[in-house]
Amino acid sequence: MGKKEETKKARLIFTGRKIGAFAERLRSIPDLRKADCVMCSDIFDTIVKIATTGDNSGGVVCMDLQEAGGFAQSFFDRFGEYGITCCCLDEARLAGNLSLPENVMIARNERHLETMLVNLFPAYFGSSTDKSEDYPEGFVKPGFTLTRGEINALFGESDS
Amino acid sequence: MESEERVNLLIIGNVGRLMGGDEDFNPSDWRIYDDVMEGLEAASSGEFSLTAVVMQDFSGRLESILKALRKANPEGRVILLSRMSDEPRAMALTTASRNGSRLADDYLICPAELSRLKSFLEGSVRGGVDFPGTSLETVAGKRGENERIKTYRQKIRKLERLVVTDELTGLKNRRYVIEFARQIIECARKEGKQVTLLMFDIDDFKHYNDVYGHTAGDDILRQAAILMKRCCRQHDVVARIGGDEFAVIFWQLSESDRQKQAHQERRSRSEHPEEAIFISKRFRQELKDARLDSLGPEGKGVLTISGGLATFPRDGSTVEQLLKQADNALLDAKQSGKNRIYLVGKSENDISDIS
After folding, report:
1. pLDDT digit string (tens) for B96-155?
2. What CA–CA distance (Å, rounded) separates B138 from B119?
3. Nearest Cα to B34, choosing from B59, B61, B10, B7?
4. Which of A140, B1, B10, B44 is the most exposed place for a label (fewest CB within 10 A)?
């Protein structure tokens, strides 16, 4: 039950074509290279990918907020029960119009998003190089979800 | 024998606007999700053998949703619940691509009774699924039954086509065009769009029938139908509504659909009713240039039409009003010497005077 599964890796889902080039660049970053990266064509593909996996082992979805369009609210609302965190690039500054749940984090530019992911992975899933911390089965601690306060402590207050 | 009831039908979208209730349809057999994300999540469980998607709710993202649905449940069948105005798109989505894949398996024109979904449901037993304890005879029996259901459904579809099609020309018939106009006017009212109705007939058609025979008359009608279809945009509805009377409904696609079709269609730069006028003018010219073999060597350039154009909301707010107005304009065109198309309210000028 509680033993570490060596083969199971942190899941990082890139959603939409807009984030494609950025995703390629991220894959060369050592901490993220070890993540189980998945490309999804759009938000519908993403929700199916998450739902068909069938477990609540969490993961991170990385996307451009524009990708969600009018389906943003319903899309993000589904994440809670799967333990998914979503890192959204929001260069168009759309987030202000949405009431986003706590597991959705907003980055103002690609650099901010990159920092967010690099910091999030070791903290959230356990560093791939850090053997001292023993996480249970899967890559996320069961029931563990970052609170807004913890996210802010990790990245600083997002600019408003 | 089965103690557990299987949930077979999943509906995604707001079906209330499209389908009437039916007591005969057992609600334990189906689930409805207005929210597409919840619907896709449910589809991913793989327990639904048939998923029905309300087209109008997701127009801009429909293809993406259907692709995701296929991934969510590759074994399940997908049907589209389509309004008449969405039928061309529904047809395109159910047509196999070059690699043989289809985004949807079938479509159902709505409004319809919920029980209509039953026939789709009965015909959608998953291939290769066997149940423990089922004898081979039963499996064979079920397969035979599936074949019968498939044939039955094909016959229903054929009948449905016949009910709305004019046999001689292959165009839509009066029944279809009136129902389509009713629905498209309702949409246009909500979306602040325009709909233009053209009614036209062939000048002196009786003369051709009497002099050249009814076969020649039929040929003329078929030629006129082909030419009009060729002049119109793909989504416009062309119908034969009586002997030599035709009707065309010109309507506006949504912006996303328009962008998709922009590369396929010949379009004028103008909008309603100017676009309808442009198409009508082109049709008159094509008819004039057409060679009508059934009328012999002197058949070229003799055929003319008279028509009347009426536009929603300017000339009427219901189908009946538009039909009446277009018919009045047609009558004016006839009385003014034929071979012209009149716009309602511009009876002294036929459309050739309008730039």
Report:
1. 777 778 899 888 888 777 777 776 766 543 332 223 333 334 445 666 767 777 677 677
2. 21
3. B10
4. B1
Distance from CA of A107 to the nearest CA of B (A): 24
Query: Is B78 within 8 Å of chain A by CB?
Result: no
Amino acid identity of residue A142, one-letter, is P
| Residue B328: pLDDT over 50 | yes
Nearest chain B Cα distance for residue A121, angstroms = 26
DSSP conformation class of A64: E
As a residue count, chain B comes to 355
Specify the pairing of strand B305-312 against strand B195-202. antiparallel
Show me where the domains of chain A are located. Answer: 11-154
Instruction: Please give the structure tokens belonging to residue B308.
Output: 């009347």
With the C-alpha atoms ordered B242, B244, B245, B246, is the resulting torsion angle positive or negative? positive
d(Cα B159, Cα B165) in Å, to the nearest integer?
Answer: 10
Rounded distance between C-alpha atoms, residue B277 and residue B273, angstroms? 6
Q: Which fold has domain A11-154?
A: Rossmann fold (3.40.50)
Which residues on adjacent β-strands are paired with residue B309? B198, B343
| Residues of A with Cβ-Cβ distance to B61 under 8 angstroms | 42, 44, 69, 71
Residue B333 near residue B310, CB atoms below 8 Å? no
ipTM surpasses 0.95:
no
Contact list in B for residue A51 (CB cut-off 8 A) is 40-41, 44-45, 72
Strands A11-15 and A59-64: parallel
Chain B residues with CB inside 8 Å of A52's CB?
A: 44, 71-72
* Residue B77, Ramachandran bin (φ over 0: left; ψ between -120 and 50: alpha; else beta): beta
DSSP B58-90: GGGGHHHHHHHHHHH-TTSEEEEEEEGGGHHHH
CA B34 to chain centre: 25
Predicted TM-score (pTM) of the model is 0.62
Which regions of chain B does DSSP assign to beta strands (E)? 9-12, 19-20, 30-33, 50-54, 77-83, 106-110, 112-113, 195-202, 237-240, 245-251, 305-312, 341-343
- Interacting residues of A133 by C-beta distance below 8 A, sequence separation 6+: A126, A127
